[in-house]
Specification:
Strand content: 15-25%
Pfam families: AhpC-TSA
Distance between the termini: 17 Å
InterPro entries: AhpC/TSA, PRX-like1, Thioredoxin-like_sf, Thioredoxin_domain
GO molecular function: antioxidant activity; oxidoreductase activity
Largest sheet: 5 strands, mixed
């Protein structure tokens, strides 16, 4: 497992459209995914210990953001031939197990991960209502373990600010996670 950190936010970078199949048997696009106040695009997978460590809290925070007009989409871009835990069938199981309140889609060609310059799982891209990037940071300080004392909800607080002001925080801490598993 290779742990990587994401680059910091390129404020104003415009979201790139996609057309990806979801575990709910729908095809999801950027337009179909966005909320009245913004969109959280996150690259996650099933096998990553960094994702597993935050998943229940992530689902809870995404539900709270939905009430603020921020919608979310999760993209799985790993090579599932080499990482079968990340297969489409297993994506369906995880989405059901955790009752995902967001579309979970597969980027089998890995094209969208390349377009977004996704580095790791989890990798978060928080956009305002104009689909301009306002946050590219961590979920919180958890890493692969338990949340530390006095843990802050970095992602939630950043997207709350985006919902209210359409601007993200200037101070952002990069996300850390497992590298995207690219095809050769």
């Amino acid at each position: 497992m290779v742990s990587l950190n994401t680059p910091l936010c390129d404020f104003g970078w415009k979201a790139i459209d996609f057309n990806l199949p979801g575990v709910d048997d729908n095809i999801w696009t950027l337009e179909k995914s966005k909320g009245a106040n913004g969109l959280l695009v996150m690259f996650i997978c099933n096998h990553c210990p960094y994702v597993k460590a935050i998943l229940p809290r992530l689902v809870s925070d995404v539900l709270a953001l939905k009430d603020l007009g921020i919608e979310t989409i999760a993209i799985q871009s790993n090579n599932s031939e080499n990482y079968p835990e990340d297969s489409f069938e297993n994506m369906k199981l995880i989405a059901n197990q955790f009752n995902f309140p967001f579309p979970y889609v597969i980027d089998d060609s890995q094209e969208i991960a390349h377009f977004y310059n996704a580095i790791c799982t989890p990798d978060f891209f928080g956009f305002n209502r104009n689909l301009e990037l306002q946050y590219r940071g961590r979920f919180d300080a958890t890493g692969r373990g338990e949340p530390p004392p006095n843990n802050t909800r970095d992602l939630y607080e950043a997207m709350l600010l985006v919902a209210k002001t359409q601007k993200g925080p200037v101070d952002q801490k990069s996300s850390i996670g497992c590298s995207i598993k690219w095809r050769e």
